[in-house]
Amino acid sequence: MGKFKKNKEEIITAYLCVLPWSLGLSIFIIGPIIASLIFSFMDYSVVLPPKFIGLANYKKMFFGDPLLWKSLYNTLYMTVIGVPLNIILSLSVALLLNQKVKGEAFFRTIFYLPSVVPQVAMSLLWMWILNPQVGLVNYILSLFGIKGPMWLASEQWAKPAFIIMGLWGIGGNMVIFLAGLQNIPQHLYDAATVDGANIWQRFKYVTLPMLSPTIFFVLVMGIIGTLQIFTQAYIMTAGGPMDATLFYVYHLFNKAFRDFHMGYASAMAWFLFIIIFAATMLNLKLAPKWVYYEAE
Amino acid sequence: MRKCLKLLTLGLVCIIILVSQVIISSAAKRTLEVWAPGGKVWEDTYQEFQKTHPDIELKFVPLTGGFDERKQKLLSAVAGGVPPDVMWVDRFEVSQWAAFDTLTPINKYLPKYKVSSSQYIKQTWDEAIFPWDNQLYALPWQTDDRLIFWNKDIFKEVGLNPDKFPATWEEQLELNKKLTKFDDKGNVTRIGFAVVEGLGANGGEWVLGWANGGEYMTARSTKVTLNHPKLVETLDWLVKMTDASGGVEKAAAFKGTWGIEVQAPFFVGKIAAMINGNWTFESIARYAPNLNFGVAPIYRRDIYKKEKKLVPITFSGGHAFAIPKGAKNPDDAFEFIRWITGIEGTRAYRKASIEFSKSMDRPWAPIIFAYQSSNKESLEALAEQPVSQAIKDGVKLAFDLMAYTRFRDRSPAALLMQREFLGHARDEALYHKKTPKQALDDATKAIQAELDRLIDEWEKRTGKKLR
Known about the structure:
The complex is a heterodimer.
Chain A: H1 2-39, E1 42-43, E2 51-52, H2 56-63, H3 66-97, H4 104-112, H5 119-129, H6 136-143, H7 158-167, H8 171-182, H9 186-194, H10 199-227, H11 231-237, H12 248-258, H13 262-290
Antiparallel strand pairs in A: 1-2
Helix pairs in contact in A: 1-13, 2-13, 3-7, 3-8, 3-10, 3-12, 5-11, 8-10, 10-13, 12-13
Chain B: H1 2-28, E1 30-36, H2 40-52, E2 56-62, H3 67-79, E3 86-90, H4 94-99, H5 122-127, E4 129-130, E5 135-136, E6 138-143, E7 146-151, H6 152-157, H7 169-179, E8 181-182, E9 188-194, H8 204-211, H9 229-244, H10 248-255, E10 271-277, H11 280-287, E11 293-296, E12 298-299, H12 301-307, E13 312-315, E14 318-322, H13 330-341, H14 343-359, E15 368-369, H15 372-383, H16 389-400, E16 405-406, H17 414-430, H18 436-462
Parallel strand pairs in B: 1-2, 1-3, 9-10, 13-16
Antiparallel strand pairs in B: 3-14, 4-5, 6-14, 6-15, 7-10, 7-11, 8-9, 12-13
Helix pairs in contact in B: 2-14, 7-9, 8-9, 13-14, 14-15, 15-16, 17-18
């Protein structure tokens, strides 16, 4: 009896201890998630009571909002081109920095440094770098006799400009790749060298397979992150020029917090969730074909 | 463990007692919660109110963040049932707030507090009336207007008469071509006459549309007429003007090189002429006191073409104070908005702003209040200020032009209209994606759809019929 009482007390204590966290989770995360699902079937302008309208928001989304498709295209463009570029570049830099050279710690710091800069500061900085008249990028291009594009002022070049800007922040992925590279046992390389493998073969048959779980992780996180791209466009271009940088979440933000179509914005959020979910599922499905887990 | 539980219980009890104490004490005093701008000048003004109203306890919450953020905060507070008693709003948004049933109509307070429309500049008062129910929802506080500014030195440099600004669009287009400068790589280094919002001008689109005889909406704001032939013609001219100064991409690139304050493009000769607001005078006095500038009204093009007569036109915005629906203390709230927009409040504000400028060793120029008689005092105060005669004359002109001013159509879709006409649709034309006609046709359709939805909602809620 006494033992049971003690147990009960412990249980209560445990619940009390997790209470703050679970309250936070349910009130500020799970609650709004459920609410947004309900609102997605409603016409809700915040101040007036919500009205149930069935699938009207979804219907409008798929058939009556060309900007939504444009914003989705812009976002997918960033994902399809930006994420692989980011992985290739950050992996290349990681490979270089994995060499035993003098001052490697210094170089690693240098390449990581941009990742510490907050998005807002980075955006403001790059507005100057990308300025077509006085910016650094076009100045360097002009040294080679190339007339640089209009970058953020141009409908064609605004998205590539954002991708280039994103490549500046490869430091985060680079660190992850570095960690992955150091986990590859040296004896595999030694064995490959003894068997006469050259650098490329060692990379292809040892490094890549051993690193594939890391690449997979970076790929999945990169896709999820890029599908939610927002800050740069909000600060640097306001979605322009000509909606070229109107990304999905930015369009959603406009609908929710400028037009106060909360119901519609909720529906958009759930559509994005499904897209991200599907993309991640597809990734997981394809993973066994190329990701190698040592433990298996 | 038991100790721990006891402590928790004790803590909870304490909190409950504290909260109830706060509620009781706040009910005992007549508190007035005001969400309005902060800063030294405003806070001095609120203090003056507090001094003259000792029985009211003023609880002031400074509004921070940008336009979007402020609106989100107010909206959440109203939706959550905990609105402030008074809030500061953009006047052209009053209709949107009213359509959403978030503001208290204030007509019934007017006789008791001896407030009447004749005390305020007519246009600013009218802008606070929601045209669907003709109720007044706010008292106007301040306003502004738009004029043409030009740099006389640049005019001389290219051999133009520095004292005269051409009146017709054809001449102005020629002027723009003549004044715009490029470097040897083809980059813009000077815009001749900036008329497009965001590319050196402010409010140019609106005022030029009216100047040309265009109308954006029908009188009761139930029908969008953004594709009015006169507005199409206006946008067409805006495209021509932009193309004349290198096109929109080059202008945007050029804009990226502009600075602020003493480095502002008009002060350093990167813009030769522009349509901009009356606040420019104070900036000139502060950052470019030696600028040799001229200033002129924008004239009605439609009247000039017919009768060769110069009739000015300008565009006003500004702010107002309103009482949200569900405010706990609406009577004191009205006393506050009457006071702050009226003679006492505007006097206190002017005094505080003059003192503040003095303490910072900056020149001072008045803003335009909605309250008429206060503006006379503002001009008298300006006369004693150590600013140039050109600035004094310019400010006087800006004040006088209020007689000719217009405001954006009052409508719950006003913000969407602004985003189209100063943004999306306009840019489609500037970037030559669509013809001006096509761009405005499409925008008209989009805004009308949103407006129809809002009308439906409003008609259902109020049981009234608009169409």
